[in-house]
């Protein structure tokens, strides 16, 4: 195995300085607001493209604005080994979710360039568009299109609207990232895909481990719930004569939490709620909310959803107040099992860096672009600890040491995989 | 007592045709959307002013856009006997709430004009601005300013914003109703104020009565509730480690309903809810909602609010999940007791029209402009039945017969009060 080492200071300086410049929330917050295809996103993308070109990379932009920066290898017929993640953030997110993975990939390219290291396969940095799904609904959107396994095809994604009514295709064009490379793994593919990411949960920290060898991404499903009641005057309608959609919704939301906690099958969250009425003196007649359910396996998701919906039925029967409801499955990502060769590359690299007692195998509880790439190319992920398990929050934090360690394991995983490719060819 | 009779067909035709022209929701709905100071409101106001002028009335517009159309009396030193209500509606309201009161007042003026009836006191029609508080927050806003008893003074009302950021003073000016008459009962007062209104509740219908002699308006209070939790990733944060503001809010909202129902002290409603987050994959950290509490007396409002807040405290202790909350009293209207002379005028008129078995004395469970006027001039109200008790809803309905009956009782109440004024002077 190679003795190459990434430059920890350079990595951490680059990560912090680019965050400070493009999308930082006002101090003293260390959080980020870098919505996909915003001006801040354009600026960090432009910078990244220039950096990669200066390292001798060829840069391609595809139809979804995904950036592929490819450093050539010695083999003539090999596709790149990709290191992908995303530069966009939640509306009030942190500096590590996604950004660390891209900055670490850049640090790997810088290390290879600086040391004039030849690899057998080309090595690529990939920035996936709209992983967060925060501005345009649909998390991991562009890697989903690329994998062709998502139920949302290119044209449908192009046609989605943000809350200001700006169509995604226009947003891509406006910032200069509506590329011509097909967004399709069959025409622009990889040998494999590695992704360094923060855990976004408390497990590594709690177990006193520094590297997570990720073997899968848990299954997830979203359901839209619509509750209908009857509008009425808040002063004159007796308590016993009300068909209050918000009361039914409140009982549903409490039930989602109670059942997820009791079942121990996984997690279920209501993150967004909207009411039709904006009048304080009117009994609400229409409530919409979304349930996000995540479990280790697809079967467990179905089981937990089934328990929740059974309880909804019981609540409406019990209320017997004329409210009704409808649930619609709006999005899902089945369980993603990673590739043994890639998992082995990460395990080998991590073992060398930190030894067996610092490593744990784990499933990702969050969705990642790697969940999509794993469906069409060998994939795995590397996790580093999140302080207090906090993520999707300005207080998200991963120490500089853990960031550097993750980048080092990414470098060695890629080199190990590359070495095996070379051995197989010879 | 006078033998004058209003013209039922003219009243009902005027009510329906003006609703159809200005602010009707698309058919087959018979509902209304005539937000205060909107174009629809301007059009119906302009029409009303011209109608009143054609009946020989002097028209004054005050600083809050209130319209006063005054038909002179024979006395030199008397203020007008006012018949007030409002032409604005909820965003999805009906054709009777407020509108009936103004159209009935117009019908009274038409009847007096047509029959060349001389009254002792001047008789005024009043259209109060922004009774609904639907576009600009603050129900019964302009009658509150006029009474000088509201905690919200003129300048504060002028400065309120609608959801598009349009300041109220500009909205008044834009439709030509920023008048110069002082909005102050001391400078532009009445002898008394009568208001015909639909009940907006089920009691008259249930009790098979046709006229409600209203003796008071129940007490009401609004509280803003803010719940704070900690944002977190919906996939990676274990169910047991969550500080979910929406779960706490849901338990609170259910408790508001449960306690109001069990206590039988009055009604309590959560009509508006908002979440800080718009991300489906984030545990909500900030929820706002408003509680509307209404009871017969101020003491009962305090008692019900106390029971609700005690339960909030218990819920947060029980959840023990790091969520916290704050309640702020944002608005209140103490119980309004009407004036015995005005109540007696309504009772006398109603007895003559329908007899004792069709009448009931009652408290209003909804707020009305008369609640404010009653604080500074003798006031009472007349109620007519609401079909199924439905209001603040496009299906709000009062039969043409009941509309006409209400207008007839309004006419006779005003004439009876006027006669007494004349008797006292002689």
Automatic annotation (TrEMBL), chains A, B:
Q: What keywords are assigned to this protein?
A: Hydrolase
Family annotation (SUPFAM superfamilies): Bacterial exopeptidase dimerisation domain, Zn-dependent exopeptidases
Q: Which domain of life is it from?
A: Eukaryota
Where does the Peptidase M20 dimerisation domain start and stop, copy by copy?
219-314
Pfam families linked to this entry: M20_dimer (PF07687), Peptidase_M20 (PF01546)
| Family annotation (InterPro entries) | Amidase_Cbmase, Bact_exopeptidase_dim_dom, Peptidase_M20, Peptidase_M20_dimer
* UniProt GO molecular function: hydrolase activity, acting on carbon-nitrogen (but not peptide) bonds, in linear amidines
The record's similarity note reads: Belongs to the peptidase M20A family.
Q: Which PANTHER family match?
A: ALLANTOATE DEIMINASE-RELATED, PEPTIDASE M20 DIMERISATION DOMAIN-CONTAINING PROTEIN
**Under which name does UniProt file this protein?**
Amidase
**Protein species of origin:** Delitschia confertaspora ATCC 74209
The organism's taxonomic lineage, starting at the top: Eukaryota, Fungi, Dikarya, Ascomycota, Pezizomycotina
């Amino acid at each position: 195995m190679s003795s190459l080492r990434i430059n920890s200071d350079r990595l951490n300086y680059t990560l912090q300085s680019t965050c400070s410049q493009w999308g930082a929330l006002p101090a003293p917050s260390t959080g980020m607001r870098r919505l996909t295809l915003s001006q801040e996103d354009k600026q960090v993308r432009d910078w990244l493209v220039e950096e990669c070109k200066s390292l001798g990379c060829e840069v391609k932009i595809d139809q979804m604005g995904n950036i592929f920066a490819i450093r050539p290898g010695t083999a003539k017929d090999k596709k790149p080994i990709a290191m992908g993640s995303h530069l966009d953030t939640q509306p009030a997110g942190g500096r590590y979710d996604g950004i660390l993975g891209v900055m670490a990939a850049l640090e790997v390219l810088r290390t290879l360039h600086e040391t004039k290291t030849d690899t057998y396969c080309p090595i690529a940095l990939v920035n996936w568009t709209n992983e967060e799904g925060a501005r345009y609904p649909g998390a991991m959107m562009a890697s989903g299109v690329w994998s062709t396994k998502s139920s949302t095809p290119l044209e449908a994604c192009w046609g989605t609207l943000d809350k200001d009514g700006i169509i995604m295709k226009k947003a891509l064009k406006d910032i200069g990232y509506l590329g011509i490379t097909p967004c399709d793994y069959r025409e622009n593919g990889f040998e494999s895909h590695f992704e360094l990411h923060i855990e976004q949960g408390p497990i590594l920290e709690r177990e006193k481990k520094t590297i997570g060898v990720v073997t899968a991404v848990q299954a997830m499903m979203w359901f839209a719930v619509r509750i209908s009641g009857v509008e009425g005057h808040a002063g004159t309608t007796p308590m016993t004569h009300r068909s209050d959609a918000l009361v039914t919704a409140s009982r549903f939301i409490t039930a989602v939490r109670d059942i997820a906690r009791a079942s121990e099958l996984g997690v279920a969250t209501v993150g967004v709620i909207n009411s039709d009425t904006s009048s304080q003196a009117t009994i609400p007649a229409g409530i919409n909310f979304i349930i996000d359910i995540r479990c280790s396996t697809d079967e467990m998701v179905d089981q937990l959803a089934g328990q929740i919906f059974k309880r909804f039925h019981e609540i409406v029967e019990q209320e017997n107040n004329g409210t009704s409801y409808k649930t619609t499955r709006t999005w899902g990502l089945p369980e993603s099992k990673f590739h043994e060769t890639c998992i082995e590359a990460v395990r080998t690299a991590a073992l060398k860096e930190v030894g067996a007692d610092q490593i744990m195998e784990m499933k990702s509880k969050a969705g990642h672009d790697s969940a999509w790439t794993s469906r069409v190319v060998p994939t795995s992920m590397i996790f580093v600890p999140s302080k207090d398990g906090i993520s999707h929050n300005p207080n998200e934090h991963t120490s500089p040491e853990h960031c550097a360690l993750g980048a080092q394991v990414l470098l060695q995983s890629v080199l190990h995989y590359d070495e095996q490719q070379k051995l197989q060819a010879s």
